[in-house]
Amino acid sequence: MKRINIFATVIVLLSISLFPRNEALAQEFKTRSNKIGAPGIEKIIQDGNFNEAIVKLNEKLESEPNNTELLNLLGDLYNYMALYKEAINIYEKSYKIDSNSHALFGEAIVNFLIGDLDESKKQFIIVIRSGYRLIDSYNFMGKIELLNGDLAEAEKYFNKTYSIDSVNIDAITNLGIIYQQLELNARAEMFLKKAVDLSSNDSDSYLNLGVFYGMTDKFNEAVINLNKAISLNSNNKKPYRALGVLYLNHAIFAEAENNFNKVLKLDPFDSEAYFNLIVLYAQQSDYNKAIKTFEKMQILGLSHPQLYIAVSNIYFKQNNLEEALKYSKMQVASYPDKIEGYLALLGMYKFMGLDREYDELYEKVKEKIPLSSNNMTKEIHETITNFLNNNRK
User: CA Rg, the chain, in Å?
Assistant: First the structure.
């Protein structure tokens, strides 16, 4: 079975955000509400009186139904409130009136947030051609390509932003993340440290840098920056999770468990924390506690992309081959596009002497691994060898 890469469970796309509830957004609402003759709306929104803001904007729309500035402000408000269906309806209505770029820009953002990356990409391309809000549009295009796994395209868009605005935290942070993924660590460190220098009171900047140091085996630097992130925002669960992962990777189990439990105190439904606890208990050979944690995840309706592999591994170490095989099969059934489950199941079939099942699955694996036949055979052989050698007591 493939070794579970624990640090991969830390979300690194931390800079992805939209319309943060901060002073910048309030200022944008203020500027636009004054422009359309609706002063004071920004204060109502900032105070959280969304119902009053919605009523006032709709009252103005009754006398000015084709005022796209009003419509766009209402769409932005719904976007801000995460009422995405309402936001899209308003943006579409505005766009039909005069094909204005802000309506398309707003709809592109909503599609990004709801995960329709293809539609969002198409819309941002049109927005960029119009020259509207280029920095924001380039950043979103970079995030889309980053989420799609196209690092070259993502780098291109973030560099476009960086060439226009050399202190843009969004672009700087994501360029650091891209270079880390490309293993250009010196360049990655430069950008991530620059993000910290430019936003010394921002928890996420220290978090990103701390995660980077953890992934590049700079333990002391990782601990310092992750704790700094916590000191700036103790209600952010991500630094605790990253610290837990860091200590787990170094087999400092008490600290790891303590930090994962802090995550769960902040968010009792955090599947990553539960999964990491399962791995932690398994590494301590406390299999009963690991299985109890898994059962709690099931009760809560939580999952994880590598959960069934981890559970299969636990049962295998307990010599419970029937359950180990069951969860290897569940991994394949639950994540049919992920190769890890197939490789784990091949290992089980090989160990149990189920040659027919092994041969049938091997043919499927040929279609799943985009490698030459020799490389694929080597990959499978190494995976099965590791499975048999490393997952026994």
Answer: 25
Looking up tokens 């802000």 gives 102
Contact residues for 329 (Cβ-Cβ < 8 A; gap 6+): 345
Let me know if the fold of 18-131 is the same as that of 133-199.
Answer: yes
CB 25 within 8 A of CB 45: no
pLDDT confidence of residue 116: 96
Q: Does domain 133-199 have CATH number 3.30.420.40?
A: no
Q: Assign domain 18-131 to its CATH superfamily.
A: Tetratricopeptide repeat domain (1.25.40.10)
Q: Which tokens go with 152? A: 């070259």
Cα distance from N-terminal residue to C-terminal residue, the chain: 14
Given this model, what pLDDT does residue 13 score? 37
Residues 184-237 have pLDDT tens digits of 999 999 999 999 999 999 999 999 999 999 999 999 999 999 999 999 999 999
Q: What is the pTM of this model?
A: 0.80
Task: State which residues of the chain have pLDDT below 70.
Answer: 1-39, 368-393
Q: Domain ranges in the chain?
A: 18-131, 133-199
Amino acid at 140: F
43 touches 236 (CB < 8 A): no
- For every residue of 118-130, DSSP letters joined together read HHHHHHHHHHHHH
Burial of 55: CB neighbours in 10 Å, binned 0-12, 13-18, 19+: exposed
Tokens of 215: 């992934």
What is the pLDDT at residue 377?
56
CA angle 253, 267, 12 (to 5 degrees): 70
